[in-house]
Amino acid sequence: xxxxxxxxxxxxxxxxxxxxxxxxxxxxxxxxxxxxxxxxxxxxxxxxxxxxxxxxxxxxxxxxxxxxxxxxxxxxxxxxxxxxxxxxxxxxxxxxxxxxxxxxxxxxxxxxxxxxxxxxxxxxxxxxxxxxxxxxxxxxxxxxxxxxxxxxxxxxxxxxxxxxxxxxxxxxxxxxxxxxxxxxxxxxxxxxxxxxxxxxxxxxxxxxxxxxxxxxxxxxxxxxxxxxxxxxxxxxxxxxxxxxxxxxxxxxxxxxxxxxxxxxxxxxxxxxxxxxxxxxxxxxxxxxxxxxxxxxxxxxxxxxxxxxxxxxxxxxxxxxxxxxxxxxxxxxxxxxxxxxxxxxxxxxxxxxxxxxxxxxxxxxxxxxxxxxxxxxxxxxxxxxxxxxxxxxxxxxxxxxxxxxxxxxxxxx
Length: 412
Prior knowledge:
- This protein is an all-alpha fold.
- The protein contains 17 helices and no strands.
- The termini are far apart.
């Protein structure tokens, strides 16, 4: 065997991996967290065993792994603990594998070793978070998102189907996943930040779930606690900023050229409503921040699926109207759909543009019409839920935002 400098470097990486993982396990033994016999020396020898075995012969590495596994199993069964755990034993086997990997991919082996040590050292925070912070419903929601992304998504066909070839099932399912993910982020922010930041930030976060629903909740809050007028208006106003941000995120994911076409109108609308919301927020700082009631679930699967269904219907209707009546039919369909949800309409139009059935310039007007129509629904919600003063302040912000969006379109 020819020994060169690179081989010595790989052996040094394997040595470092063993020392790193072994030091953490030795420290765990010293703190009373683990009384296993494997410490820094054992882990270092295990890493070198994997490295040398790999250098000699791949089958020797297999034999070494079998021997270490037998040793680990024997040591595990002779321990007298009621709950001995398997962390150190699994880590020892993993160290042998990392030592072998270091001989061919030193950077990857070193990175995996660091990640493993972080997981081992963060035992208490991880256990505390999973057992004391995450609820059963939140764990179920996480599993739903994981299943939707890792199991269902690869099985969904990625092709245009349906009337007018308007629907791509994979894109629709991606929207379901995105809606659930945004809902989970909003729920997490409400749990971690809601009690400290008050209604303005809660409104901003909740707006990613539903701006109309957020305005309704803020209006109900004002009716129950009129002294929270400023904070509730700030929350309702900032939820419209979330509409702009979420719209930009969706367009970036579906069809970036359409986003570029609408960049300046969205910037104008976002800056205007952010400025108005900031002024209202600063005026409400003298009031005690309160948080809205937090939902038990991170998101609603029914809502995500309903949105996907609405998007599918709007896609078919938009494609049909575009085929029958041209651009005017598409604008009318977008406006009607925007009354319920601007994102569904924007996704539908952007999907048509992504399928080369519509140019980015032609897609911009229907999306802006849908955005304006959605503001009408927000106005109605504010009028029904919050009273005259709440209605006046919220509508003023919406007028400023919609006007700024159209001014941005007209100028650029």
